[in-house]
Amino acid sequence: MFEGFIDFLSAERLGYNDGLDSIVLNSVSNLQKAIPALGDYTVIQCYLDNDTAGRAALAKLQKEFGDKVMDKSALYPNHKDLNDYLMSLYPKKSTKLKL
Question: How far is Cα 49 from Cα 52, in angstroms, rounded to an integer?
């Protein structure tokens, strides 16, 4: 489960998703809509943002599904989200010419 589409694409780039089923919320406000689709899964991997809303969504999922929920944000503890982590791996090079 991803909070946003860019995080989903980042997981694809990093090889974290590897062909697994995915749900992209596009906002944690859509979490309630996703809950019915999660019932049949034995593991729910959550790549949610490291902010108040992301942690609240994770807590709600853990309350609903217990140990089936895996918090994958430990992979990017010092970053806002998975995309922020991916971007940190490839520092932006300056395009300004030095004369």
Answer: 8
Cα–Cα distance, 89 to 99 (Å, whole number): 28
DSSP 2: B
Cross-strand bridge partners of residue 45: 70
Q: How far is CA 12 from the centre of its chain?
A: 11
pLDDT at 99 over 80: no
Q: Residue 46 forms beta bridges with which residues?
A: 71
CA dist., res. 89 & res. 33, Å (int)? 33
CA dihedral 20, 44, 37, 86 (to 10 degrees): -60
pTM: 0.87
